[in-house]
Amino acid sequence: MKKYYLLLLFLVSFVSNAQIKGTVSDEKGNPLPFVTIFQEDTYNGTTSNEQGNYEFNLNKKGKQSVVFQFLGFKTQKAVIQTDKLPYVLNIKMIEESFSLNEVIISKKNNPALAIIKSAIASRKRNTEKTNRFNADFYSRGIFKLKNAPKKILGQKIGDLDGALDSTGTGIISLSETFSKIAFEKPNNLKEVVTASKVSGSNNGYSYNTARSSFYDFYDNTIDFGIQMISPIANNAFNYYNYKLESTFNDENANMINKIKVTAKRDSEPVFEGYIYIVEDSWAIYAVDLDIKGYRIKEEFLDVMTLKQNFGYNNSNKIWAKNTQSLEITAGAFGIKFNGKYNYVYSNYEFVDAFAPKTFTNEITRIEINANKKDSLFWNTNRPIPLTMEESTDYIRKDSIYKVRNSEKYLDSIDAKENKFKLLKLLTGYTYKNSTEKHSFSYEGLLNLGSLSFNTVQGYNFDSGFRYTNWKNQESKGIYTSISTKLNYGFAEDRLRVTGQFIHRFNNQNYATLYMTGGSSVKQFNPNEPISKAINTISSLAFKNNFMKLYNLESAAIGYSQDIANGVNLNGKIEYQQRKPLFNNTDFSLFSKDDLYTSNNPLAPNDFTTAAFKKHHLTKINLLAKINFGNKYSSRPDGKFNIRNEKYPTLYLGYEKAVATNEKKYEFDHFNTRLMYDLTLGNKGILGMNLKAGKFLNADNIAFIDYKHFNGNQTHIGQTARYLNVFNLLPYYSNSTNDSYFEAHTEYNDKGYIMNKIPLLNKLKSTLILGAHALSTPNNKPYTEVTVGLDNLGFGKFKMLRVDYVRSYQNGFQGDGVVFGLKFLNILE
């Protein structure tokens, strides 16, 4: 009975109020998916779905011509009389009989080269015709998962809110969007989302906005994380081979050239497939191109297929994109992902200029009732009919959503999950009230993930408690968290306890109040240049204790919020009592005859003298973060910042110590930081991180308060980029209480150079060139230069990096190899 009910609802959804609808098939009756259909001499159209069904509204009655365009088939034009609506128009399309007009193709006489040269020469003229426009935009995205395991890293993944069946297969995401867009090349966009629908969430918002759908092959490069070379870029002949496969005529007797494009070098960021060029105007008629995952350094991606179709309007003589699709296939460990995104552009209005202030920093705005549109609206306006699978998913997931968000269901699940067993005293316990949206959790006494080793505490581990309330998070962004962490060190035989309170007031300006306090061990460098995991391995295996610690008793209160677009201000006042610590263990698994250095970073061989005396003070910290040219998206449930990658991010900080037990511990510290990524087209990216600061009245401050620089003596790198670390610098060798300047730059060729080197290009890696510099008044300048390879690994797992480093300070200091293990950062 349930099957019949679903079928009935599907049929109801298809029998909609569209003015014209039907099915497109080939001569054998097989449905043709994603056929482009439009009203002649207009930009009003749609595309058929996977089952060949289509529907759309005509913008005038009477005698009309409807065009059906599908690559590989003859373009068909149907003349209809639409006095009576709805009108059913079924079409059978005939395969194109291609010809090359007996052109003999050879290396010396390749007609494709002349066509591409003409397309490149006409590129500016053709793209200027669509420089500025208003349009209606529709998008639909579906993402499927196949063969998902029951558990990942020991954690059950469940059925993902009804998405997966017993085999781990199903639709995990389905959503639709209607928008009104204004666009001006190269990247001015104003989008108003008028309707949004998400399967399984009656208050959700789709992320399928126009901002993520612009792929313009008239540009030299197209951004897919890596700048892909357009087949008609200025330098395209350096990257592509071309072959004219056939020619045919469209409905207006324009001759269309079908050109196959292939890569000259397999590992370069290039497309493969077909580009269709209109004779004489040399405009793009269509593209059907593949993006291989390894070519954009996305190893888990198998392939993406991008298709675009352009329509012609006789009145304004403009070819404009009317449909686009992007299909994604990816996977690993036998799990397969498949995504399909369809876009329809219609009702173009090309303009010579936009009114002042049309484009602002607000890129996208979602209207208040966008996610409240009923089924009648969607069935009437949806330009691509739902497939049976999609209709079923909406119906089933919406039903599941209602059931699983009902108070009765939530209470029953909570009752099951909240059962307490004595074993949970060791493993941890969580109590959750899903109706009231709050939870309480206890981490247990066997929190092995927190287990680490250092010479002060020996083996130590964490436990703790947390209360969370998110009742108004979805609608207003309000969030509250109260937590406490317990840390016990066995060699020190000491328990330390810290607490934290966080309350976010909204997600419009992200106003947040936070308080912390308690007793903890801290590294002298608050940036924690060596992680617990690396220090544990370094100590137990090699008897190195690079982590230098002190005891902190503190109480702090802070507040942060966005005070303007792209400007965030954070202020904190904190009372601190500092006490020196000493080594309490000499234990190591290996190298047992060696000695650990002391816990004093100023005197590694002095085990009795502390780096500072016990004291207390109060710190005031102010930090401003400025994202220049910041863009944002407005939704009824919040404002979401979008950093403008054309501009840098600037930090301005001030730190002041007052109310100390001795006047010498008081100081002022001004600091600034500038971060910027300069994209060099398809030639890679240059990252920069510049820091500077100045202490005032700080001659006798505690060593804790010095400016410490992120060194590395382990030869292990954990981050994806080394823009905040000196790879061979001893951790506390250049610390200062005066002025300082440090610079980190790193160039990643994104394969631009490596792809051209024989044999090495088989690695599919990227070349990294780095330079690091540090200047302080009391030391000679310290510099490093690095050369390395990133994106190394096996198969789909490219999470390794190797760099050769040379360091200089008053002459050559040394060299070494740093092994980048990026997965360690993920595990932590």
UniProtKB/TrEMBL annotation:
SUPFAM superfamilies: Carboxypeptidase regulatory domain-like. Gene3D superfamilies: Carboxypeptidase-like, regulatory domain. Pfam families: CarbopepD_reg_2, DUF5686. Residues 1-18 form the signal peptide. The keyword Signal applies. The keyword ATP-binding does not apply. It comes from Flavobacterium sinopsychrotolerans. This is CarboxypepD_reg-like domain-containing protein. It comes from the Bacteria. Keywords: Signal.
